[in-house]
Amino acid sequence: MQTGTLPRENSGLSMKTIWKSDALQRFLAFGALVMLIIFFSIASPRSSDGSSIFLGANNIEGILIVTAVNGILAVGVTFVIVTGGIDLSIGTVMTLSAVITAKLASDFGLPIPLAILGGILTGAIAGFINGTVISRMRVPPFVATLGMLYVAKGLSLIIAELAPIYFDRASGFSDIAIGVIVQIPGVIEIPNGVLIMFGAAIIGAFILTRTLLGRYTFALGSNEEAARISGVNTAKWKLLVYTLAGMFSGLAGVMIAARLNSAQPSLGQGYELDAIAAVVIGGTSLSGGEGSILGTVIGAFVISVLTTGLRILSVPQEWQLVVTGAILIGAVFLDMARRRSA
User: Fold this and answer.
1) For residue range 110-143, what is the model confidence (pLDDT) as tens digits?
2) Cα-Cα-Cα-Cα dihedral of 232, 245, 207, 173, to 10°?
3) Beta partners for 189?
4) How far is Cα 103 from Cα 100, in angstroms, rounded to an integer?
5) Residues near 310 by Cβ (< 8 Å), separated by ≥ 6?
6) Tens of pLDDT along 15-45?
7) What angle, 0 to 180 degrees and rounded to 10, lies between the N-to-C axes of helices 293-312 and 271-281?
8) Which of 76, 185, 226, 338 has the fewest Cβ atoms nearer than 10 Å?
9) Contact at 8 Å (CB) between 16 and 277?
10) By CB neighbour count within 10 A (0-12 exposed, 13-18 middle, 19+ buried), where does 34 fall?
11) What phi and psi values does residue 95 have, to the nearest 5 degrees?
């Protein structure tokens, strides 16, 4: 009797462990990505040779380029959400960084590397200000970053003088995002922006899992008060987290400027929603204390594949937003249900 009941008990414990694990949502996100690819491959219109338009090389390259910008933004905001915070300014900070990069490269004639550095530093400064307001002035993250959203948007329009800035004097700048140095002959060309996104993701994953900043990021999200009582300078580490998120926003600004070969000062607002959606779909909890960069990258691809597939099926944009929102609500509900059971 005992030998017959042991396997059932162990099986039950295993299932409970799997359900309570934050890896479950990453697994489900990856499963959803695979299912979306299969569905759109079957449902999309056919080209003249009978192959799926969705699986065409041009469409796959388009998905990769779109994911590059959103993926970099999402990697940065993952750190913020793991602490239990939020950053609504990443989209407009990205735009401000793109405008500064364009100004330095086109109007001031600086070398491209210095212009890129200026764009990334612009994002870091914005993140530093966010972190200072939140950690030192005790302003809630939602309010502080909402304020920065409008500040960055206004500065972008002022600096650009309400007009796009083109990289006419910066020859080859667009190659940073849409140039190709890696390709599979006869199959697909991988844009440079995608390689940069994966590089940023690897750096982000290393920081989050292998450094002191990463450990304190999780500590802040799990129980900030307990960390403070234990002697951790929570204000300092929270400031660093928001500064790091700003740096990733700056890098995303460089990427979108290179992709468009221009800085569009009215662009940016709304990108933060896609980035946050990617983070949540990838398994990072809005309650803080849990998350991974791998899940975030998967979530970014889910968003890109979904929007691209719906567009190919000629689904109106307003319904695309409805579907994306429904998936986001489902991901949050799953996370809440898992945490309640735990």
Assistant:
1) 899 999 999 999 999 999 999 999 999 999 999 9
2) -160
3) 183
4) 5
5) 319, 320, 323
6) 455 445 567 778 888 998 999 999 999 998 9
7) 120
8) 185
9) no
10) exposed
11) -65, -45
Whole-number Å distance between alpha carbons of 265 and 99 = 7
Domain borders along the chain are 24-40+51-341
Tell how strand 180-184 and strand 165-166 pair up: unpaired
Q: Which two tokens stand for residue 294?
A: 């791998």
* Pairing label, strands 165-166, 188-191: unpaired
Contact 263, 97 (CB under 8 A): no
What is the spatial distance between Cα 61 and Cα 47, in angstroms, rounded to a whole number?
17
Facing residues of 182 across strands? Answer: 190
Question: Around Cβ 323, how many Cβ atoms within 10 Å?
Answer: 14
CATH code that applies to domain 24-40+51-341: 1.10.3470
- Whether the full predicted model's pTM is greater than 0.70, yes or no, is yes
Are residues 302 and 29 in contact, defined by beta-carbon separation less than 8 angstroms?
yes
CB 67 within 8 A of CB 256: no
- The Cα–Cα gap between 46 and 52 comes to 5
DSSP per position, 13-76: HHHHHHHHSTHHHHHHHHHHHHHHHHHHHHHSPB-TTS-BSTTSHHHHHHHHHHHHHHHHHHHH
The letter for the amino acid at 50 is: G
- Chain position carrying tokens 């982000």: 204
Q: Show the DSSP H helices in the chain as ranges.
A: 2-20, 23-43, 57-82, 90-102, 112-135, 141-160, 175-178, 192-210, 212-229, 234-260, 271-281, 293-312, 317-341
